[in-house]
Amino acid sequence: MAPPWPPPPVPGDGHGWGRTRGRIAAAVALVLGLGLIGGAVAGAAINHAPRPAPPVADGSPEAFAKARTVWRNTPVDQLFPRTLTEQGAGPGGADRSWSRIGVAAPAGCTGAFDPLLQRVLAPAGCTRLLRATYVDSTSTTVTTVGLLVTSGEPAAMATLNRRWAAERLGERADLLPRPVAFPGTAAARFGGHQRGSWAVQVSADQPFVVYAVSGFADGRTVATPQPADRAEAAGTTTAAAQAGLGFDATGLASAVDDRAHTAAESALGPTPAAKKHS
Questions:
Q1: Is the dihedral of CA 201, 84, 25, 27 positive or negative?
Q2: Is there a domain that residue 2 lies in?
Q3: Do the domain assignments include residue 1?
Q4: Is residue 93 part of a domain?
Q5: Shortest CA distance to 226 belongs to which of 216, 236, 211?
Q6: Which residue among 9, 17, 104, 136 is least enclosed by CB atoms within 10 Å?
Q7: 3-state class of 65 per DSSP?
Q8: 245, 227 in Cβ contact below 8 A?
Q9: Could you list the pLDDT tens digit for every one of the 278 residues in the chain?
Q10: Full-model pTM
Q11: Position 252 in a domain
């Protein structure tokens, strides 16, 4: 049974969830009624502890096939919690927290990325693209986080992972992900010219590419976006850095990447050793 992901948007209806409180409440009620909430909670702390070894050896086509079911079988709130908090993860060691303001309907990848990034990601394929947008606790910044579930086999993901690192593609401003705006929210004016910082994480052991792109909630244009690692560097004085846009991108991308891997490991089931001792 599929989780209650938002339906495809209809004309004049924005981007699925996040349009009205009534629709959100109805969707949450549906989750509870179907018993699909699982381990999802209203808020969650980000935990970047090392992941346990995957139940199936890395590079297994069987593991990839099961991991691809994550987009269909994992509840919205489990992959994209309604609130997220990370202690000491902002500028100057300040705590950082975000609230979800919209979830887009699961979609394909056509037109979802700038053309050059689309070409770079194409060899990994596209099963489904999941996206949500968050606002920080001060309503100053907005961040779209995306989970691309790829259709490529393990070799394709390993190749993309190596290329992304070797060519430092995560630092190129012509490879920015696109944001998702939600009318009537703090992200109503979040478009291509508002992108201030970004982070992309290409998995080598699962069919996932996770990204986040952040900007200002007031809709201001950012002339020179900075990759998250530069925007987080000590002494950086750009507006994007001082507002914590890099921390937003890193924190939310890592949070969703952690949750996607956890969901995939759950889909794979216990290890043979665990089964033996159960």
A1: positive
A2: no
A3: no
A4: yes
A5: 236
A6: 9
A7: helix
A8: no
A9: 545 667 654 333 333 333 333 333 333 333 333 333 333 334 565 554 444 444 444 558 899 999 999 999 999 999 999 999 876 555 555 678 999 999 999 999 998 999 999 999 999 999 999 999 999 999 999 999 999 999 999 999 999 999 999 999 999 999 999 999 999 999 999 999 999 999 999 999 999 999 999 999 999 999 999 999 999 888 888 988 888 999 999 999 999 999 999 999 988 876 444 344 33
A10: 0.80
A11: yes
The CA distance from 74 to 3, in Å, is: 6
Class of residue 10 by CB neighbours under 10 A (exposed 0-12, middle 13-18, buried 19+): exposed
Count of structural domains, the chain: 1
Q: Which residue segment(s) compose the domain that 141 sits in? A: 21-270
Query: What are the strands of the beta sheet with 208-216, ordered from one edge?
Result: 43-45, 83-86, 96-103, 128-136, 141-149, 208-216, 197-202, 226-227
Q: Which residues, in sequence order, are bridge partners of residue 102?
A: 133
